[in-house]
Design a protein that fits this description.
single chain, about 110 residues, mainly beta, five-stranded antiparallel sheet, three-stranded antiparallel sheet, 8 strands, about 0% helix, elongated
Length: about 110
């Protein structure tokens, strides 16, 4: 057809995410679990919450960590779960930016 409104130009502004998770791991040591995550390009982050789950679906916040807001570099964080569950434990990290938006890391299983 030759209608005047046949085509539309849509411009979406690309916005960088406040964090890029580059890895997460969970390692059992004795009766504890060491959780470590790596990020890059942090900006406008308010808080990290590390979370645990027994089934990999329903997560509970176990603690908080203040971000370094390493905008031009990489950052590494470590926390210890002193009382892990008896069977399989799933961990993830929830990042919260200054606008209240949340982003999740991949899930680590131990």
């Amino acid at each position: 057809s030759y209608a005047a409104d046949r085509f539309r130009i849509i411009i979406n502004q690309l916005v960088a995410l406040p964090v890029s998770f580059t890895g997460i791991s969970a390692v059992k040591k004795n009766e504890q679990v060491l959780i470590e995550w790596h990020t890059q390009q942090e900006s406008r982050l308010e808080n990290y919450e590390w979370q645990r789950s027994a089934d990999g679906i329903s997560f509970m916040t176990m603690g908080n960590k203040k971000p370094l807001n390493a905008s031009n570099g990489k950052a590494r964080y470590q926390v210890t779960d002193a009382s892990p569950l008896n069977n399989i434990n799933y961990y993830r990290v929830k990042s919260i930016d200054t606008d209240g938006k949340t982003f999740f890391s991949p899930i680590a299983k131990v």
